[in-house]
């Protein structure tokens, strides 16, 4: 009888051990570090192609899973303010007022500039003009008629491209006629490729990194040379022109990490700003914040040794 009396204690001990083991397993699975775990990143839709490339390489190298959520700039900002511990990628820095809101919540956003891209004006290949004046674009955005522009097409009214052009033109709202919007950059490219009278406004990385299904539409449009507000020279949105600050519609890109702890946001920002991430930027046609170093191996030939 004594032998069987000890049995419940043994079972109780076994349950405790198993419970502890399961709890440890679940904890280790849920643990997030700078290079392991899961995180959601909200990205300005105009920047999606280059960020998708970064995430693919990052996940391939580390035990990490990043869920990318592409939205308009306004929606990304709303997510940044409303989601606890959010990470966002934007084509502008936070304003002083926005920073004040975060600091009132005891959050100090970690902001990492990582690249410079550009807004490109595109036209159907059948269009004869290959140059567009930024002064005329601004006049058109202000509701004035211009002989060279019949219509501008944006991705959507809440996008960073619309916000950028409104700021440049000094207007609060776009004109009621002559300016059109869709939902994505792909839709703008497709529409312009099929309509010769319209000029599209897109993020330049949608031209340099199109999805396979979009290649035929990208092939049927041209990026226009842009004449800036000063001088008569016109420039394409090329990597070199962006680097030399010749192209007038360049903009810096930022990772804004509001996690408040050493999580994947910090690890991903370090990766994108590091050597591998900057090489991905360079290869994409955008301008990295730091030009990655190139390594050369110098060997002596037999003639050198003589």
TrEMBL record:
InterPro entries: PBP_domain (IPR024370), Phosphate_ABC_transporter (IPR050811)
Alphabetical keyword list: Signal
Leader sequence segment: 1-23
Superkingdom of origin: Bacteria
Keyword Signal: yes
Domain PBP span(s) in chain numbering: 36-272
UniProt xrefs under Gene3D superfamilies: Periplasmic binding protein-like II (3.40.190.10)
PANTHER family linked to this entry: PERIPLASMIC PHOSPHATE BINDING COMPONENT OF PHOSPHATE ABC TRANSPORTER, PHOSPHATE-BINDING PROTEIN PSTS
Protein known as: Phosphate ABC transporter substrate-binding protein, PhoT family
Organism: Flavobacterium xanthum
């Amino acid at each position: 009888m004594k032998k069987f009396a000890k049995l419940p204690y043994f079972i109780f001990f076994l349950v405790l051990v198993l419970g502890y083991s399961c709890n440890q397993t679940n904890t280790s699975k849920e643990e997030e570090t700078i290079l392991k775990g899961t995180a959601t990143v909200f990205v300005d839709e105009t920047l999606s192609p280059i960020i998708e490339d970064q995430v693919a390489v990052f996940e391939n190298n580390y035990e990490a899973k990043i869920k990318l959520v592409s939205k308009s700039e306004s929606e990304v900002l709303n997510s940044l303010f409303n989601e606890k511990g959010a990470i966002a990628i934007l084509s502008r820095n936070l304003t002083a007022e926005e920073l004040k809101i975060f600091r009132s919540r005891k959050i100090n956003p970690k902001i990492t500039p990582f690249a410079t891209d550009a807004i490109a004006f595109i036209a159907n290949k059948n269009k004869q003009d290959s140059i567009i004046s930024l002064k005329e674009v601004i006049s058109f955005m202000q509701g004035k008629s211009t002989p060279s522009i019949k219509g501008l097409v944006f991705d959507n009214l809440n996008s960073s491209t619309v916000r950028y052009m409104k700021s440049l033109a000094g207007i609060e709202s776009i004109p009621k006629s002559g300016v059109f919007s869709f939902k994505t950059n792909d839709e703008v490219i497709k529409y312009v490729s099929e309509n010769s009278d319209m000029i599209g406004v897109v993020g330049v990385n949608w031209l340099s990194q199109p999805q396979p299904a979009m290649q035929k539409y990208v092939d049927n449009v041209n990026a226009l040379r842009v004449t800036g507000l000063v001088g008569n020279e016109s420039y394409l949105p090329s990597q070199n022109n962006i680097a030399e600050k010749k192209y007038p519609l360049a903009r810096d890109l930022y990772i804004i990490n509001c996690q408040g702890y050493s999580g994947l946001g910090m690890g991903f920002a370090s990766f994108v700003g590091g050597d591998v991430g900057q090489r991905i930027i360079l290869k994409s046609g955008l301008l990295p914040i730091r030009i990655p170093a190139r390594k050369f191996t110098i060997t002596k030939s037999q003639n050198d040794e003589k």
